[in-house]
Design a protein that fits this description.
The chain is α+β, with helices and mostly antiparallel strands. The protein contains 19 helices and 20 strands. The N and C termini lie far apart (about 180 Å).
Length: about 525
């Protein structure tokens, strides 16, 4: 049912039209007698169609009224007239009415014109709506086209007379194209790709020609030397002979991937070349996900035997319950360094390991990086060294002479108990940083330094007699014999023995006096 307005100054015509419309099932919304009334009613009632008489009283004919109504709305107009004046007809045609009916009119003719007019109006409204949607769609497309972070370029393929693709023309590009390529839109649109990119054959011509011909889309990644860039490109055909490309600059990502591969290669090399056992295990169950070659030597398991198994399954823990305690510590503190722990090899032998571990996250899982050093031999060597040092100290305590050791700066690091008796210094004096030179009389220190330098230069220095200095300031004669303590080729200190020769000196003096007295006695006898 349509809403219809009748505009005619003749009452009989209006009544006749009302009956026709009512019998056709339409709704009469109003009757206007003048052009001005028709305009006002059209504004108030918004009819779908107006049956408008051309000749109207009041200074405004139906054509003028229809012009004003058309400017304000999309109402359909069907003109009726008893006049066939060409001037009226031409004016009416300019308004593109939906029908033109001459009086007197036939009911079927009027109904047919009205139905046709309503149908045309419905089609026109649909077309307008479709055009509106299309415009919005185009606006959205243009917005997406311009706002996209990916470069977009539309092309038209160029063929030679035999139908072979030889080039393609650039039809449109977006802002991202300009940013990525560094070329402005005004410089490329409408030009051949071979000209734009300065090469004989435009890039990826065969690939794009296949897309434009078949309509089958494709995507690929490629390095393009002229721009020194890596691109990821998707190509599709909106219509035969044309194609569009959507591309992303992958150069930074590719550079990062290459750097990552180099880093991974270096890590892999260092990881497997390391003489230290390194494993990656899951935090919760200790499943081994990676291990280096050194672990096979330390633990006795081949890599293929251990990967995928838990540390509890392969059994390196002599005391498995301790693992739970250590995992709790790792969860709390994130790891620890150089913890001495007993481990068990594949052949059931136990060894002492120095275990360092760090908690890390990879993806959504947590792992442990474990570094394990077998320190069994080192511990044995340390124990032997301690035993050797104990024997040295025990032996030094048995000697009646001063036995000492110093660091490379001659700070005393060890003295035997005889030292306290001979020098008068107490243990605390040595703890406070007493130097070996402090036990020499001031006048002897220069000569001692010279002899020490010669010794460091490799010259053999025999036992040297010096004047020693006690804590109370008294002096005594002494014999000093030293030798360097080395670690490899580096001198790290000195070791020596001091002998108090006070009694020897007294004995020598007495002997000298006796010899002198004896010589004088013999002389007296001869004189007699």
């Amino acid at each position: 049912m349509a809403r219809i307005l009748i505009a005619d100054d003749d009452l009989v015509t209006r009544m006749e039209l009302c009956e026709m419309l009512d019998s056709a099932g339409h709704d009469l919304v109003g009757e206007a007698e003048t052009g001005q009334q028709a305009i006002e009613m059209a504004q108030d009632f918004h009819p779908d169609l107006i049956v408008m008489d051309i000749v109207m009283p009041g200074g405004m004919d139906g054509i003028t009224a229809a012009e004003k109504i058309k400017k304000a709305s999309d109402t359909a107009i069907v003109f009726i007239s008893g006049y066939g004046d060409p001037e009226y007809i031409e004016r009416a045609k300019r308004l593109e009415p939906f029908g033109y009916v001459m009086k007197p009119f036939d009911e079927r003719e009027v109904k047919a014109f009205i139905e046709i007019a309503l149908h045309k109006r419905a089609m026109e409204l649909k077309l307008r709506h479709a055009n509106k949607l299309l415009k919005k769609s185009e606006e959205k497309y243009r917005l997406l086209f311009e706002m996209s972070n990916e470069g977009i370029c539309l092309h038209e393929m160029i063929y030679d007379p035999t139908g072979n693709a030889v080039d393609y023309k650039i039809l449109d590009v977006n802002s991202a194209y300009e940013n990525i390529t560094g070329m402005a839109k005004r410089e490329v649109v409408g030009r051949k790709a071979s000209e734009v990119y300065g090469i004989g054959i435009p890039p990826f011509l065969e690939t794009y020609a296949a897309v434009a011909e078949s309509g089958k889309p494709t995507n690929f990644e490629e390095y393009w030397p002229p721009m020194e860039k890596f691109f990821r490109i998707s190509a599709f055909s909106p219509e035969k002979g044309k194609f569009a490309t959507v591309f992303t600059d992958l150069t930074d990502r590719k550079v990062m991937e290459r750097a990552l591969r180099e880093t991974e290669k270096k890590f892999f090399t260092v990881f497997h070349a390391s003489p230290v056992c390194i494993t990656f295990t899951t935090l919760e169950d200790g499943r081994i996900v990676e291990m280096n070659d050194a672990c096979s030597q330390v633990m006795g398991y081949e890599r293929s035997e251990a990967l995928g198994k838990t540390t509890l399954e392969i059994g390196p823990w002599p005391e498995p319950e301790k693992r739970t305690k250590y995992i709790d510590q790792i969860k709390e503190k994130g790891g620890f360094n150089n913890k001495e722990i007993k481990f068990k090899k594949k052949n059931k032998e136990t060894f002492l390991g120095l275990w360092s571990v760090r908690r890390i996250e990879m993806g959504s899982e947590e792992y442990l990086v474990n570094v394990l050093v077998d320190i069994t031999e080192r511990k044995h060597a340390e124990e032997e060294l301690l035993e050797s040092q104990k024997r040295f100290k025990d032996f030094a305590e048995m000697l009646p002479e001063v036995v000492f050791e110093t660091d490379k700066n001659l700070k005393l690091t060890f003295v035997n108990k005889k030292t306290y008796e001979i020098t008068g210094y107490a243990e605390q004096d040595f703890i406070n940083g007493l130097s070996g030179f402090d036990m020499l009389a001031p006048g002897e220190r220069k000569r001692a330094k010279e002899n020490l330098t010669k010794r460091l230069q490799g010259e053999r220095i025999k036992t040297v007699e010096y004047v020693g200095l006690r804590k109370d300031g008294s002096t005594y004669p002494m014999l000093l014999n030293t030798s360097p303590i080395k670690k490899g080729d580096t001198v790290i200190g000195f070791r020596g023995v001091i002998m108090d020769i006070t009694d020897i000196k007294k004995t020598e003096e007495h002997l000298k006096q006796a010899q002198q007295m004896e010589a004088r006695g013999v002389g007296n006898i001869l004189e007699r």
